[in-house]
Amino acid sequence: MATMTTTAPQDGTRPGGAASGDESAVVIARQAIVDEQGAVYGYELFDRSTREDAHTAASDAALLFNALSYAGTEALVGRKTVFINCTHESLAGGHLELIHPDKVVLEIPTFGEGATAGQIEARTSVFADLRQRGFRFAFDQQVLRRAYASWLPHAAFIKLDMTAFQPELAEPLVRFARTHSQATLVAEKVETAEQFEHMRSLGVKLFQGYWFTRPDLVKTRTVRPAEATIIQLINLVRRNADSAEIEELLKRDPTLSFNLLRFINSSGFGLSCEITSCRHAVMILGLKKLFRWAALLLTAVRAGGPAPAVGTTAVVRGRLMELLAAELLPQEEADNAFVVGVFSLLDTMLGVPLDQALESIALPQPVLDARLHRKGPFAPFLELTLACESEDDEAFARAANALHLSNRQVNWAHLQALAWAETLGDPAQ
């Protein structure tokens, strides 16, 4: 659509690709779709981390997955409708089961000149199934040709390309679309005030193009869980492991649990409340959707990102804080202590300032207080955990005494945490 012809971005990215040398970057281009008053109705998204000529079912899934999981969905699209280009192959993809259909419009291309009537008719059952699940479709103006008459009842939006017809043909085209469909019309590639006024005078309600705004880029660093851990998760799900076993694995990998919580709290998932624990996320998501999510995550794993030692350190901190808190606090609070420790290196894993990193995931206020301000019930446990990593005997003694924990209790918990972290590389654990 309109953004595919945008000029090369000015932020150092290559056209159709991420910034050179940064394999952990996801670059998503967005262009606003506005109403006749200029208010944003939605955004069309494009993945600029891959080449434009590599648009496949897999890239469709990756774009949607990255938009929800990595790019900070609220900053990217807020609560607006998302328009995403799809191949016909991707309509059968499991990634569509992971999103709330109210949030997404699937832009479907018509076929080329060689399309047969059978090819066209075969798609109608696919459209009907997805519509029954609540999805909406946008088609280009070629859908108004006689051959595509069976598609028109499935059109929620029809995009009229202002560069594809002469101005005098606009009125009969709009009239035909209104007569033969219930679709909302979108004038796209609008580049002049005259085009806008002409289409508005014909009753068109939505607009997209350079006259309103050029595409802007949202670039983010990705957090890539270890491939082996994702495979372990998939295997657990496939053998219908209980939620406690799945939660245990998620707690062992901070990047995996981080991605799960950020994904399930994204606007595209459509929940009305924030999920702040892995246990709750597993219950809400269910095994089928958890499998889909893990499978997509596996396809997104790339080289780059922080050293594995960072994740190991975060896991040790989380487990140590959990064990120490279990001596003094209720189980639920011990779970939150684990979260404080495991996300204590989130800024390093994401490559962004800590406050920005913590904004990208829903966490309980006491967890944020401990990590950001070193206050609240978990702050003493974090201080003791950090002291265990240092060679400052005085700091260690001071932190342990503040919690009335003996050297033996702390050292034993630390050894247990280290041993627990060492099991991560063993698929049998």
Task: Write a concise synopsis of the structure shown.
With 429 residues, the chain is an alpha/beta fold. The chain contains 17 helices and nine strands. The chain has an eight-stranded mixed barrel.
Q: What is the oligomeric state here?
A: single chain
Helical content (DSSP H or I, runs of 4+): 40-55%
Profile the largest sheet: 8 strands, mixed, barrel
Described by the principal axes of the CA atoms, the overall outline is elongated
Q: Structural class, judged by helices and strands? A: alpha/beta
Mean pLDDT across all amino acids? 78
Strand order of the largest sheet: 1-2-3-4-5-6-7-8
**Poorly predicted residue ranges:** 1-23, 301-306, 424-429
Separation, N- and C-terminal Cα atoms: 49 Å
Rg computed from alpha carbons, rounded to a whole number of angstroms: 25 Å
Describe this protein with a few key phrases:
429 residues, alpha/beta, eight-stranded mixed beta barrel, 9 strands, 46% helix, 13% strand, disordered N terminus, disordered C terminus
